[in-house]
Amino acid sequence: MSFLQKPKVSHSGLPRNELGLSIRDYEGSMSTLCAGCGHDSVTAALIQAIWELNLPPHTIVKMSGIGCSSKTPAYFVEAAHGINAVHGRMPSIATGANAANRNLHYIGISGDGDSLSIGLGQFAHVLRRNVRMLYLIENNGVYGLTKGQFSASADLGSKAKKGEVNRQPPIDPVTLALELGGSFIARGFSGDKDQLVPLIKAGLMHDGFALLDVLSPCVTFNDHEGSTKSYAHTRHFDHPAAQADFVPRKIPIQAVYAGGEAIPVALHDGSTVILKKVAKDYNPVNREEAYQYIQEHRARGQIVTGLLYINEDQAEFHTLNGTASGALRDLPYADLCPGAAVLEEIQQRYR
Amino acid sequence: MKPTDVSNPDHFHRVVDCQWACPAHTDVPGYIRLIAQGRFTEAYLLNRESNVFPGILGRVCDRPCEPACRRGRVDEKPVAICRLKRVAADGKGEIASHLPPVPARKNGKRIACVGAGCASLTVANDLLPLGYEITIFEKQREPGGLMRTNIPAFRLPTEVLSEEIHLITDRGVDLRLDTPVASMKALLERGFDAVFVGSGAPRGKNLDIPGRYEDPAHVHIGIDWLESVAFGHVTAIGRKVLIIGAGNTAMDCCRTSLRLGATDVKVMARKPLTLLKASDWEMEEALEESIEIIPCHAPRDFVLADKRVQGVDFDVLEYHEHDGRLESSILGSAFFPADDVILAIGQENAFPWIERDIGLEFDRWDVPKVDRRTMQSTRPGVFFGGDAAFGPENIIWAVEHGHQAAISIHQYCQGEEIQVRPPVGLHLASTKMGMHEWSYSNRYDTSGRRKVPHVGLTERFKNIRIEVELGFTPEQTGVEVERCLNCDIQTVFFAPKCIECDACIDVCPTACLTLAVNGEEEDLRGRLKAPANNRKQPLFVSEPLTQTGRVMVKDEDQCVHCGLCAERCPTAAWDMQKSLVKIPYASDLRGR
């Protein structure tokens, strides 16, 4: 935790994006997380990605539940909308917000406790509904805010700081999401921004629910020898399978993609993700093969990372439910609130 | 790139841009911090260690530190370093008792210094505590050299000048005033163990154009005229004055003229405005006093009537670039009327008193050959410094020459090899005081540069002795000291401790840090978080890191030394450490 504020001075040669904003215009308040926390790197990656995407701050909604991870929304894009929800209940609030205004960019930040323990039910259903949002889990395998108990994502045999060994099997959000029908499933590492920033950009532009599980080491309670979620362990066992290069709409795809091994996937806003197979035998557009590959490598102790599964054709929440085509706030009052007579008519149908 | 060798004191010294740029390497952030604490005497003494004349230099230094100041790269205007130096001098207490004692028992070596200017005085200052007997020969009736004769009293009050000279001469210097040295040969025969020549560049350049010598009473050589004013021989000048030349001497001449009765003063420059030699601030002050600076005018001839100067005819020039060189062509001519004309087109060395057959070689410009490191001439035991050595430079260079000459003279007199220079040292100490506390003021203050108040435009011309600059008020000082970025509080990196968590990189406000796969400098500079375009700033490159083998790269250029990298580092791989560059002086060779 730092008592200092980040000085109001920046590099004189700092570039500006299409909106004329520098990356520092996308910062939030000073982090009060532990020095060296992976979450702060995730924050920096988010800022970088959002700045590069030229998103106006007022089109962003930041949402979270409870936990160290859930403090993150305070630390980026100060001018965005945001809500800090009840523990594990952020998915419901995100669904409601998205239902009311489908034109905003929703970023849910959660942790392994918030999503895989208390909020597992909510997590499963927001994923099934394919609500358009970037759902980012800052996963460190430990309850940092309550001083270092194993979380639901702690691996079998992983050691706590004082030597205790975890005996319960972990919940892996990635394989769970594959099982539940997720349309965009990715895993990154807070210590590898070159991989993480394009994943965030692709996730934000995905037409549906984008799960991004980020291994984000807890520098205070889970960065020791014997931990399977430390900086050193993650770096050693990181197995990148499919690299995602994000290509913005304005750049013609032919300029960067000449065919071959990579798979281009068009996103709904006109941008493209180019999936490069880092592992030759990996197939990021086949759910069953992806599932099998990840399970096999997990059995060997390897952590498969990258854009692991994508399906842009899966119908998202609004399409599934046949909702209004725009934000509810843009509907004429008479359409939004048709009056007692119409209500009476609807009620008649159920009598 | 190879890992940066941080064991070389120059690595950390370069980070302190102001200190590195100062010829005498004054510890600027160190004394600014002392001023911030109200410790003016200590700030003065720290200054004096390197620059010897803080009160004088706090007013008239050429201040190479300020263009170098990092604040100027981050926030347009540099810290007002020179002004703060004056604050230390103005606020100091008693100084003499804090100076190193001069032993009553001498070491038996006698040194002669020619000229009592800043270079000779520095030699005396450095050698007195070692027991040397110093004799200074001065042709004027007062010591100080050009500091007294060429800098007008409204910029440098005589009391300030005399006080700092006395701090040296009162410590047992045999000061022979009104004693010009007429022959080097004769001086050498007097049995001194070494001779130091600090006689300045006393000859003003002449302008041989038609009519130059017809009216000697009204055509003056700038530095000679300023000298006559300084000693009270000249107390008046005509109403219309033309200054030929646009260097700092010209600025002093034009402003002095205004104080001796002139009402219409024009500075006539041959070059365009952007290429004038005068320091920006000296020009600003002249403009403030309604001096006209007229560029692109080259004097052609003096216009006279009845052997009395009426004015000067000029060629009006136009400049254009040709093959990368500036060439001029004549557009026409112009006449400017004048009662007096002052020539301020430069000055040069003159050594009519040095015989050419005593083993002291001169180069093809008739200037003695002097070694830049040792300040020794080709005749062992004869040393040069100040403007006498390499032509007109400035006071702070003269002081540095004096320090180096003092080291050489001591080595020479003790029979040591003078080419072996004492090494520069470096001391580093952590400034970490607690979890989130540092022993320096690391908050970035957004205030702009303070402007020093001046005496009003009606008041200042009443007397040539009225100092125009008033110095900072305590309130201004309080703000200006906080503008210093503490570049001497170094970011020190311990590669083995780094876990590559990116915390420092994410928090750095000026994007100085990058974790990168190593490469050649050109390639690496292009891959940093913010463009590293200032080639004068070397990159810091760490040893390969343990987890990925990448390197930590720091572009020092715009680091504001806020300490956030160290504050956010979970493993203390970064630390903020105060560096103290140990510049060697003659006194450090004591007992060798």
Could you explain the architecture of this structure?
The complex is a heterodimer of chains A (351) and B (592). Chain A has helices at residues 38-52, 90-100, 112-116, 120-129, 173-180, 193-205, 231-237, 253-256, 287-299, 317-321, 333-336, 340-349; strands at 60-64, 81-84, 105-111, 133-139, 142-143, 149-150, 184-189, 209-215, 238-247, 263-266, 272-277, 303-310. By secondary structure, chain A is α/β, with parallel strands linked by helices. In chain A, the strands form 2 sheets. In chain A, strands 2-1-3-4-8-7-12-9-11-10 form a 10-stranded mixed β-sheet, sandwiched between helices. In chain A, strands 5-6 form a two-stranded antiparallel sheet. In chain A, strand 10 and strand 11 form a beta hairpin. Chain B has 4 domains: 10-97 and 445-483, Alpha-helical ferredoxin (Fumarate Reductase Iron-sulfur Protein, Chain B, domain 2, Orthogonal Bundle); 99-201 and 350-413, FAD/NAD(P)-binding domain (3-Layer(bba) Sandwich); 204-347, FAD/NAD(P)-binding domain, CATH 3.50.50.60; 489-582, 2-Layer Sandwich (Alpha-Beta Plaits), CATH 3.30.70.20. In chain B, the strands form 7 sheets. A 5-stranded parallel β-sheet of chain B has the order 3-2-1-4-15, covered by helices on one side. The model of chain B has no long low-confidence stretch (mean pLDDT 94). The A-B interface holds A 1-4, 6-14, 24, 31, 34-38, 40-41, 43-44, 190-191, 193, 217, 219-220, 223, 231-232, 235 and B 73-75, 436, 442-444, 446, 499-503, 505-507, 509-512, 530-531, 533, 547-548, 558, 560, 562-564, 567-571.
What is the count of distinct domains of chain A? 1
Query: What is the name of the CATH architecture of chain A?
Result: 3-Layer(aba) Sandwich
Structural class of chain B: alpha/beta
Question: Could you name the CATH homologous superfamily of the largest domain in chain B?
Answer: FAD/NAD(P)-binding domain
Specify the CATH class of the largest domain in chain B: Alpha Beta
Largest interface: A-B, 34 and 35 residues
